[in-house]
Amino acid sequence: MANGHQKIITLDRHIMETQRQEYPEARGDFSKLLMQIALTGKIISSEVNKAGLLDVIGTTGITNIQGEDVQKLDQFANQTMIRMMDHIGMLCAMASEEEEDLIHIPKAYENGNYVLNFDPLDGSSNIDVNVSIGTIFSIHHRVTKGGPGTEEDCMQKGREQLCAGYILYGSSTMLVYTTGNGVHGFTLDPVVGEFLLSHPNIKMPERAKIYSVNESNYDIWDQALRDYVSHIKKRDKENGTPYTFRYIGSLVADFHRNLLKGGIFLYPNDKKSPHGKLRLLYEAAPLAMIAEQAGGTASNGSKKIMDIEPESLHQRVPLYIGCKKDVEEIESFINKHKNK
Ligand code: AHM
Ligand code: MG
Q: Between 228 and 61, whose confidence is greater?
């Protein structure tokens, strides 16, 4: 029977209510910032949903039906994020996985007190095959005083994040975010055009049921990871516990599944990528905050991702993220090998 008293909580309502509870004295700037990110997500989502149509409604990939240039979706997402966020007076700088340098706020607009780091379209190799992709974002308070922001503002530890989240363009579009008070998931109602609370207070189990890693790299892995993966497989057989392998190749989608179902995602350093593949500021740190807030954790093998001091905007890190016990277990394998 339908529950007539069940509250319908839109993302805007959730953001405003939690901000009011947590920071009664706040002026609401931060809420506006988050809502603007959500609006940007809706625009990107609408474009992502048309991905397969570009060849139909566009022409050869050079111009579309309006005579405009057809951009690659990752460029579109990057430009949209910048254009939607640069004029609202709340940011003093941005950093994007798609831009080599810091993104400054145009002179015509005010600089604000926050910075935004983002990966506009993660998993973009999956765009043309209709597999889930996503936008990852992270917000910090600026550390410099007044004027344009600097790299120092964007290059803060994950632990200093005020907010982290992602928008997943999957079978439905979801926005998942945390401001340090639990993790909350919202599903986009495509008809109404609103994100509605569908997954309140998401918690990960202590132990994973799933592991996700690009196992084709086995030959270039360190021995510690090879041993760990063999161990997981053996433990399956010994305990009869259902431990299963799932790998999409879109970090947001792999992480989201593991968050809801319980899993560990691994992207190690290997012979090809000695520092790992994934980026600290745009991928690892935001997802680490979400994992921790959901009861999980994230490590580079020896240190919590949240405690790594960034050294450059595009720094890469090995990433082990997911259920707590599993991340601790891979850390102990890595540690054991170091001491051999
Ligand atoms: P991208 O930011 O260029 O899309 O690259 C990051 C992606 C992640 O989404 C995913 O986890 C990883 O690359 C997959 O890498 P691989 O194809 O080496 O397994
Ligand atoms: Mg990425």
A: 228
